[in-house]
Amino acid sequence: MSKVIETLERAQLREVPRFKAGDTVRVHFKVIEGQRQRIQVFEGIVIKRQGSGARETFTVRKQSFGVGVERTFPLHTPKIEKIEDVNRAKLYYLRGKVGKKARVRELRQDVVRKPKGARAEEPAASDVSAEASEEPAE
Length: 138
Description:
Blueprint: H1 2-12, E1 24-33, E2 36-50, E3 57-64, E4 67-74, E5 80-86, H2 125-134
Antiparallel strand pairs: 1-2, 1-5, 2-3, 3-4
């Protein structure tokens, strides 16, 4: 009897990308409202994966307007259009973080920042002495 159930469940499995807890994913989920159907995107960090086979689920957490939102999705449901893995290599820096500091910030390549120790340019000493000599003496 269990062999029949296993073959039915194996037929329902679908191809999904490899991801694990700590990865940032974008889940395209079908939402049915009355007669209409649309796709809603839920992007966040995978907190856990549990179960196996057709019953496997994963939980995604995101920050929405300052409030943490978690949603659990069945992995092999036909309501999931696709799962995109947003590239994040290693999140070791999240280990010691708690609360708002545990959020993953977007990496921006177009911003050029000065090194931490760099200061604004100060006028040279010769420029300061020249300005002082231009003042009229009384």
